[in-house]
Amino acid sequence: xxxNLQELLDGKIDFIGQQLVxxxxxxxxxxxxxxxxxxxxxxxxxxxxxxxxxxxxLLLALVVVPPWPMFRQHQVEWLGGGGGGGKxxxxx
Amino acid sequence: MHNIVARGNNLxxxxxxxxxxxxxxxxxxxFLFTPIPTGVVDITSxxxxxxxxxxxxxxKQEVALVNFNLTADLNSLFHWNTKQVFVYLEAKYExxxxxxxxxxxxxxxxxxxxxxxxxFTGKNKYMxxxxxxxxxxxxxxxxxxxxxxxxxxxxxTYGEAARTSEPIEFPPVS
Lengths: 92, 174
What we know:
The complex is a heterodimer of chains A (92) and B (174).
Chain A: H1 2-10, H2 15-43, H3 46-64, H4 85-91
Helix pairs in contact in A: 2-3
Chain B: H1 4-29, E1 38-52, E2 60-73, E3 82-94, E4 100-110, E5 117-123, E6 128-129, E7 142-151, E8 157-163
Antiparallel strand pairs in B: 1-2, 2-5, 2-6, 3-4, 3-7, 7-8
């Protein structure tokens, strides 16, 4: 039970998922910032600018922060621990 | 990036960089606008009175009473980065000691574009007095309507919307 809760709070994702998240954050935020500036300038309203930036950040957080299954499709496959081959090597 | 806290942190760290860049861009975009505010300052009468000085009961002090008409169109000063505009009427003259004096005699804060058309008739809001206590022999004064644009982000900008066509003489004490 405690370990389940721990896992839920940690929300770990795999390495390829981490790469994907990093790219998503960079591209989406840069595009959202540019869009918000252009839209605000066009409508002459700072409210539009920060509205767009704020909403897109919240949406992005929703996509990127929870450990969605799409970030967990490339789990690292550990080798089986049986056999104790390592120990034999150490002895030599 | 591996767990929730690290991803949230990464997102907001990059968001702060983006916000800084956005704010800088907004501040710089104010310079793209070239406002041309127009206006007319018409001093209808200028009188000088001798009154009791504020702090010293036995001392006399001359004050000027200015009546004026103001019309100004400050619409062009309002763009997306304008928070409010401070408009003030300034009297500028050189006193008998040769000091350049600039006195703000009236002002107004314009907060909305709808209020940017100024049409005002009245007298000076702030006491217009000469520190040397007398306007005698003081050269004529120039009156100008100036503005100060206060942006949401960026630098304050100053400018002049109108001025009297010629300097106005201080009359003898009445």
